[in-house]
Amino acid sequence: MRNPCVAHRGWSGRAPENTMSAFRMAWEAGIPWIELDVQLSRDAVPVVIHDYQLRRTTNGRGDVRHWSAAELASLDAGSWFSPAFKGESIPTLDEVLREGSGRTQFNIELKTDGVRYPYIEEKALQKVMEHGLQEDVVFTSFHMGTLHRLRKMSASVRIGLILDGWRGTLLQELRELQADFLSIGYGRLNQERVQLLKDAGIQTMAWTANDKRALRRIADLDPGLLICTDYPERWGEIMGMDFGVSDADPRGGRRPSRWFR
User: Fold this and answer.
1) Could you please report the per-residue DSSP string of 126-147?
2) CATH code for residues 5-238
3) I need a labelling partner for 124 at 20 to 30 A (CA). Which of 61, 136, 149, 161 fits?
4) Taking the C-alpha atoms of 250, 256, 23 and 165 in order, what is their torsion angle to the nearest 10 degrees?
């Protein structure tokens, strides 16, 4: 498949991000990859949510890490997006892997700044191994120390660095991590950089392109680039596919004016 699509936090242009509804939409449409964010609950359960705080995408308040997994599961993670998703819950990583097994590949972003969640890589890897999905997962993070620890735990699991920039030492850093994956802001890529990464054996994902002009520009750089988007239907349009949804779909909610990676 040319420029495989990665559904960013699931099909997050059509359903609340990082929820089972968003993931199911992607799976049912045959989207080959999903990207999701993992944190740890107070009782050290890997849960799927992006922000460190609950306020933006749930009816809860405070930090994710201060709530137990059961308490997090009781929150409404859908109404902020659309009344159609009222009662949507925060899933655990275990739930997502169980239902998504055999249907997709997973880009699991480990959300940590090096202080929060010192055991996040251990807990997430354990869940992936329990489901036998090592071949279908790449772990990514902005935090280099987390990736180094993960590599020490497993010589074979795929890992990748997340960047919204470019630096001359990047290829050397990836080699030292024994990483074969890079997740990078799409505006940082050009043909020369894409070729360097390709020659080094690095699979590259460009994030997060949502307008058709950007999607076309990325696709023109190289057919092997993974394209991460909130709107797989727009990716499908430029690839000549029709998912039967439009920007007027009534189930689609409205994103807040501030939007964070």
Assistant:
1) HHHHHTT-GGGEEEEES-HHHH
2) 3.20.20.190
3) 61
4) 140
Task: Report the amino acid identity of residue 154.
Answer: S
- Please name the amino acid found at residue 235: W
Tens-digit pLDDT profile for residues 87-118: 999 999 999 999 999 999 999 999 999 899 99
**Which is more confident, 253 or 134?**
134
Q: Is the predicted pLDDT of residue 253 greater than 60, yes or no?
A: no
- The per-residue pLDDT for 1 is 77
Burial of residue 191 (number of CB atoms within 10 Å: 0-12, 13-18, 19+): exposed
Choice among 8, 66, 131, 148 that is catalytic = 8
Residue range 43-57, pLDDT digits in tens: 999 999 999 999 999
Give me the pLDDT at residue 237, please: 96
* Coil, strand or helix at 10: coil
Torsion of CA 184, 122, 66, 60, to 10 degrees: 50
Q: Identify whether 8 is a catalytic site residue.
A: yes
Higher-confidence position of 258 and 80: 80
Q: How far is 65 from 67, CA to CA, in rounded Å?
A: 6
Which residues, 6 or more positions from 24, have their beta carbon under 8 angstroms from its beta carbon? 10, 99
Nearest 5°: phi and psi at 36? -145, 160
